[in-house]
Amino acid sequence: MKMKQFLECEYALSNRIKCATCHVVIFKNELKIGHVYLKKDEGQQFDKKVWYHLHCIKKWPTGEKGQELPLFRLQTLKLEDQLKIKDLYKSLQDKPKNKKEIKVLSKQEQYEKYVTVKNLNDPGQIDEDDDCIML
User: Fold this and answer.
1) Pure H helices in 21-130
2) Does 48 have pLDDT greater than 80?
3) How buried is residue 53: exposed, middle or buried, by Cβ count under 10 Å (0-12/13-18/19+)?
């Protein structure tokens, strides 16, 4: 069965929920954002909610394949809290993605990165590199 996912924002109804990022209690009436997973299987419905403090979100939650998820219940919040969530979303979208740089090594750099064996018959003739420890 396919799982539905969406985001939900609301004020905490009690002190029984912990933030999934910092593992600290989300206090009553504090703003929280939840990532909700719904799965229907043979008439039964399973749901899982993962809650976050607003200030603990460093990356906007996405679906399994990186797709954007709809945000529900935004209109039920105070106007100032709606603006906080919208500003957070915009700031996280504007951040550049952390892409790993791929460095192509020259033959000389490749040669320097590996242990050079001068003479296979004489193990005492092995040069050590910074990345290599002789055992």
Assistant:
1) 79-94, 107-113
2) yes
3) buried
